[in-house]
Amino acid sequence: MCFKNLPIEFDSEGRARLREGVGDPYGLNDGDRRRSYTKVAVLERDPVQEGPRVRDWMIDPVTRVAGALAVHTKLDLEKREAVEGHSMAMLFRGYELILQGRDPRDAIDISSRACGVCGGVHSTVSSLAIEQAFGITPPPMGTIVRNLGEVAEMLYDHPLHLGLLAGPDYSSALVEVTNPELVVEARRTPAPNAAAHGYQTIGDIMDAMNPLTGEYYVEALGITRLGREMCQLMYGKYPHPSTLVPGGVMTTLSTSTFNEFYNRLMKYVDYSKKLVGIWDDVIDFFLDQNPDYARVGDRPINLIQTGIWDQPEVYDGTYENASAWGDARWSTPGIIINGELLTTRLHDINMGIEEFVEHSFYEDYATDENMKFPQDSLGNPLSPYHAWNKQTIPKPTGRNFKEKYSWSTAPRWDRMTLETGTYGRMWTTALAQKHPTNDFYEATGDGIRILMPEATLPETEMFWKVPGRLNALERNRGRAYATAWTTAVGLGILLQAFDYWRRGETKTHTKFTIPKDERLGAGFWEAGRGYLTHHLHMDKGKLVNYQINTPSTWNASPRDPFGGLGPYEEAIIGTPILESVGDDDVKGIDVLRSIRSFDPCMPCTTHIDTGKGVITRELNSCSCTLD
Amino acid sequence: MTTENTTPTISNGLTIEPEPGINRVSGKPDPFASIGLRSRHMPTKRHFGALGPLEKIYLFWFVGASCDGCTIALTAATKPSAEDLMAGTVPGLPRVEVVHTVVSVESGAEWVNNMVMAENGELDAPFVICWEGSVMDETKSGTGYWMGLGEDPDTGRTVTSLEWLTRLAPKAAAVIAVGTCATWGGIPAAEGNVTGAMGTMDYLGKDFRSAFGVPVVNIPGCSPIGDNITETAAAVLLFLQGLAPLPEFDELGRPAWLFGETVHRHCPRAGYYEEGVFAEEYGDKECLVELGCWGPVVQCNIVERGNINGHGGCMQMGGICIGCTMPSFPDKFSPFYATPPGSALSTNTSRVVGGFIRRMRQVTMSDKNRSPRWDEEAPSGWARHKSEPMVANRITTKFYKAYQDSRKSFK
After folding, report:
1. Which of A137, A316, A618, B89 gives the lowest tally of CB atoms within 10 Å of its CB?
2. d(Cα A71, Cα A90) in Å, to the nearest integer?
3. pLDDT value, residue B53
């Protein structure tokens, strides 16, 4: 039984149904089924005392994130922590609306443009959704090419975030401004992993992290180019791929394709040893200096992941077998509540998803008229707030924290706030222990053991231990280990590719015709930041509805109708102010570290849906200004 | 390795003196100035060996309806690379101080302060605006916004990114529209949009000229090739330094040397077109026109330049051209995967004519693959399978020999 808040139960054969006798199963006002949010509890216990020692602070824009994000917080300088958090997606473009009525194949190229940081994942998930609707299965090599493309995309994405976006927050240049004593200490602290990364002291690492001038910063930019070149070998072009199609890929493969991929992948074997060493050293140093750094960005261990890297023998593209091929993935889908793995079944994940717009610049769409699909094709119940029923109408109005304040919707699963991320997929994979057997990594139930072969640096075994808490430092540490883990996955899949190539199974694509009847499709995949789904409804060969739900929509979400906060908001509240400078000079760096640790990516967070939108005018009642 | 924090000295004795600027928000010395990211002071001494008057230029990179793909494309550039431009390590090119939400060190009001300084003419060097993403019509967003970017320092009002463009563009040395959304409107301006999205030059209007008298410069592509962005910037900067000629722009404001040719003319698969051989299935190595490729009529340089480091990009790897550099993208190219209607005539002509030429070439190629020595005997493992030359080969050989002999007699 995996649902606690939605009235969904399972019969003896494991089929889901709505519990009988519940009048309005998806109503928003049923107090009995409201779950308790840990972070709300904090707020309710300590109502914010507005006083001279509370600083109301608007950070707009939040920089070193992709896209337009603003954050509102209140810093209680007495208690030395942040006591309020609002996360605001600042941009709206209207992609889902533009997709309506188009040829379904065009969705791949158009939805890719939802995000230029991770266009490949959008193209891929779109292909998955379309081939599910078309009822076609790609040949093994088609699936493998997609997998290798995803490996490459992650190998560009993680180093980019760590080196260019998060890294500067731990650099000597910035820490000098907020905590000069830490830099002094760092300069006399030897780095335990010096043999792996070559920096003798923690101070040396922090110097290397300096923006533009630091060695590690500049190297990271170069390594992201290498990852993108690998991406292009599989996806044709990056950021926006040109070879992804329903039923596989249209990449022209040759021996050179694999040689060029192989030789680039091997660069990551050493780079990931170095990266893990760097981040382990820096993170452990911060925690040693002040254990309160563990409170920065801390929130309950509630995670949702959709899984990536299909096994070509198991993946058949159908919705009916989604839980089976989902479980066979190299990275396992799953839901973790309070650190416990609740389910890995994609069907459970899909039927529990709802998207609320109570605090977003959209009109409520959950009307009887829009409730087209009360069930999926297997008879699993679906909410009127489910993606297949979603019809959002944009309604830009003035910002008001009690009402509407973000272009992001609030996705929830079983009405709970879940976070998603790179570390999240390691988390589900580690706990589930369902991944394919291979020579390079192994889930142990409490972590993932990763074996990196000898290159310039010696063979290295690493162990990513499932952390006891989910905070800013552990998110970054997870992302460093994920670079090694992704390299390990890449090695495993590349050997698989050679195997199929050897057997002459080089076909990358299954032919199709566009069906003219009514079809549904759902793609489940992950971006660098985790969870990613595209849901489509097509009829007469055209798209009727197309819905994109992205990781940062989950993470950046505003409050939900039940008073629950979004993950960024939860992470901000309770984050301590650890700066050692005077009150007037507080930069709020730990609030920013909290936000950046999620690797926010706003472009694809905001997008829209159907709109017969009448745009109404309302008074701007927001009065938050810089203190 | 720890070094003492001393003023760096160049061997000829000139020094670079770090002088912290004043942070407008706090009124105190700018803490970020020490790492070279926010030095707003006028340079006190010219560097010996400087290759032009400009030592520094500010780049304000704003986004409208954008996916950040052009930013990512920019970081893929290598000639010159974004990091070299930002660090100012290319002699002759001024250091480019970038104000961009993705790379800036400062956040919030401190970041917004950069724009206020630019508007008030308080910067110590000229600034250029790069605009990424479509321009959305904020008159359609009621009291809200399609794209908010920071708050007004005095009132706390959310300022739209469009407002920053409107306020700063006339004061900028140049406005560069980067990517197809920014140049022509792109996907956010496609049919069905509610935001009134359009291209930058359409928004700024016919009479727009930057402070240096330049209309909007357009670098299209979805996303553009990174080197197209930095090369155009470098070409303009080298001109401003008095080192290189003024680069040429075409009638749509595109760098003429980058967008003057169709992508088909340089396509590695164009030879298949010429010989009348066309890919029938996705993944085939031949010409992709019949699978939906618009390359023969699209102006783009991706196949000869490559997308990253001379590598990758569309038809090189198997992808069709969907026309992403063109003003009518995407609506006039969709559905992307349908055969372009005009291609039936051209591809069938090519099948007939090119098919004949291809067969003739095969005969010649077979002849050229044979060392004269093997006419007698083929002793190696590889060449053993070579059979007796066919009649056609004998004829080719004979005629070519006669041709060569005739050339010799002219000498």
Report:
1. B89
2. 10
3. 83
